[in-house]
Amino acid sequence: MKHCQWCDLQFKPNVSYQIYCSPECREQATRQKIAERYARNRLKKTSRKNRKCKNCGARLSMYNDDQTCAGCDINPSEVSKILKELKGIADGKIELD
Ligand SMILES: [Zn+2]
Ligand SMILES: [Zn+2]
Prior knowledge:
Layout: E1 2-3, E2 10-11, H1 23-47, H2 76-91
Antiparallel strand pairs: 1-2
The protein binds zinc ion (2 copies).
């Protein structure tokens, strides 16, 4: 016998990994988990305000889970290469086709 993880009733599981006595309990527990996750994520998101890109220091979107902004979300050596090229273009050293 097992104890239902939701209502704490004793039940006989049909499968060894069953943790709820009924589909209703499972559904309620699942809903609760989703609600908890949602609340946690909201909390996380607000606390993640004002994060900055560790590469360029730009403010990160709170929906961005990475440590770098979208513009830096590529190979860093690739970025510096591009930046050098851009500087070269600005300086007139590199000509575009
Ligand atoms: Zn139950
Ligand atoms: Zn950046």
